[in-house]
Design brief:
The protein is built from one helix and five strands; from the N terminus they run H-E-E-E-E-E. The chain has about 90 residues and is mainly beta. The protein has a five-stranded mixed β-barrel. A hairpin with a 6-residue loop joins strand 2 and strand 3.
Length: about 90
């Protein structure tokens, strides 16, 4: 007879929570409903030339009510997937 494995509830409660990623960036678009596009810029050292190069990436973030206008600096945080592209939410304005 097969023995079914049960998940230990204490193991789930004692497991550490995953630390969420936080970035600061600038709102570049807020044309969509409850969504703002935030551009995050970071500096990376080039492996060969050893010069710092600017890399930027755009994140679609959840902005309830479109309260942050274009050009404002905000802090975004990783969250559960809200839609196909949105996995970040705006935490606060800087």
């Amino acid at each position: 007879m097969e023995k079914k494995h049960t998940l230990n509830q204490h193991a789930i409660q004692d497991a550490p929570l995953k630390k969420r990623k936080r970035f600061s960036g600038t709102v570049v678009s807020s044309a969509m409903k409850d969504t703002a596009v935030v551009s995050v810029t970071r500096y990376v050292k080039h492996p060969k030339y050893r010069k710092y190069v600017r890399h930027s990436k755009r994140y679609k973030t959840h902005d309830q009510g479109n309260t942050h206008p274009v050009g404002s600096n905000v802090v975004i945080e990783e969250t559960r997937p809200i839609s196909k592209d949105k996995t970040f939410r705006i935490v606060s304005a800087v």
